Amino acid sequence: MFNFLEKYLMGPLTKLSQYKLVRAIQSAGMASISFITIGSLFLVLNVLPLVMPGLAGFYANTFDKITPLYMLANVATMGIIALYFLVVIGFEYTRFIAEDENIDLSPVTGMLLSVFGFFMLVPQLVKGPEGITKVTDAEAGIINGWAIGDAPARFGATGIFTAILVCFVTINIYKFFIKRDIRIRMPDSVPEGVANSFSALIPVVVISVLFIAINGILLAFNTDVFSLVAIPFGFVANMTGSWIGMIIILFFIQALWLVGIHGATIIGSILTPIYLYNMQLNGSGSHIPLAGEFMNAFVYNGGSGATLGLVILMAFTAKSQQLKMLGKAALVPGIFQINEPIIFGLPMVYNPNFAVPFILSPMVSGTIAYFAIKTGLVMPVIAQQPWPTPIGINGFIATGGDWKAIILSVVCAIVNALIYYPFFKKRDNELYREEAESEQ
Question: Are the beta carbons of 286 and 399 closer than 8 angstroms?
């Protein structure tokens, strides 16, 4: 089994994780965590009366009077999250190319080229009898071609995939000209920042002409880049909205971990835009289970593999000293969703004794949480809680204060422990006999 995973899973996905663009997306996701978390907490504050009706009267006399004020924190984070991804990917992708390929590229210039290209695509245009005009539709919130509202609509999670595409195109155009030394050179006495700006003149002209042409061609077919990108984006989003899609994602994550690859980072970096998009939809009234930090709220109690139950079994019921001591050492980190002591200390990596429950346990807890949310028993995830948040509290915050999410999180952890129990007991008895024989 391990040979199969190494050959058909570890190799291709490890190679994927090394692509400069994927690394840049990972950087953007990590850089945005703090902003998304804080913005989400203000959304939780705003929706608490929906899950705690008893607060409605208190809110009517207090927070409801200043909602537009404190919700600015949410608008300035989740409302324009595509811009966060855009600037970080533009900077990091340029930097990775410059370092890996030893090309004289300026990360700041690459970032600005990405912003320039993105803003050329944002306005909505329409072709009419009098020529091309900007769309104005007050009911849809579109003024002079710009979708407005709490935040410009195309700057939200739906714009992340367009931002990724724009970064790839603009920075590779920049790379093409600099690599071939096709640029306007300045004397050595000119400051570096000024010289870099002149080096970008030719790429700016090319990007301008290219994006104008793209807009014009797509306009002839009554569409634009955002609408085209929404097609594959919607397909992947629909996949994450299904139970089968979630099971496939969990399998890939766990299988990668088994062969020593951080599956959550590789798969998560690719799917983060979808998780954020689904969370935004939930905030608007949708009921999509796999959104935001759904995994850390319900599936991964104790970290990847859902090992908190196993750690508790080891710390308090193990007969062998090896498992008992490891369980005690891993207990506090496990409570805060950190389980590297178990992943590499038990270990889980390349360990046939625990391979089955390691893959199966998250799938079962994920299934329980999926259908609890899908059927409306528990509120969907609308907020991004900090991933080390302990069991129960994480689900409560993620769902905007639904007390049933606490019970769901605890139930999932108990089920995880039951799945691990027979495998733990078998291994514990083996180690106990080995320790007894060694003492004799």
Answer: no
- Measure the CA–CA gap between 392 and 260, rounded to whole angstroms: 29
**377: number of Cβ within 10 Å:** 13
pLDDT at 151: 63
Q: What is the dihedral of CA 395, 399, 401, 402, to 10 degrees?
A: -80
What backbone torsions phi and psi does residue 257 show, to the nearest 5 degrees? -60, -40
Closest CA to 314 of 337, 336, 339: 339
Q: Is 248 helix (H, G, I), strand (E, B) or coil?
A: helix
pLDDT of 276-329, one tens digit each? 888 988 887 888 999 988 999 999 999 888 999 999 999 999 999 999 999 999
The secondary structure of residue 137, as a DSSP letter, is B
Strand partners, 134: 125
pLDDT band with cut points at 50, 70 and 90 for residue 358: very high
Can you tell me whether residue 341 is helix, strand or coil?
helix
- Residues 308, 310, 315: CA angle, nearest 5 degrees: 95
Q: What sections of 107-200 are H helices per DSSP? A: 107-121, 160-179, 192-199
Q: What is the DSSP string of 72-108?
A: HHHHTTGGGHHHHHHHHHHHHHHHHHHHHHT----HH
By the 8 A CB rule, do 302 and 337 touch? Answer: yes
- Joined together, the tokens standing for residue 11 give 């190799």
Distance between CA atoms of residues 431 and 254, nearest Å: 25
Tokens at 96, concatenated: 């990775």
229-258 pLDDT per residue, tens: 877 777 777 777 889 999 999 998 898 888
User: What is the pTM assigned to this prediction?
Assistant: 0.81
- Pick the closest to residue 40 from 385, 315, 387 (CA basis): 385
Say whether pLDDT at 193 is over 70. Answer: no
Residue 354: Cβ-neighbour burial (10 angstroms; 0-12, 13-18, 19+):
buried
How far is it, in rounded angstroms, from Cα 183 to Cα 177? 7
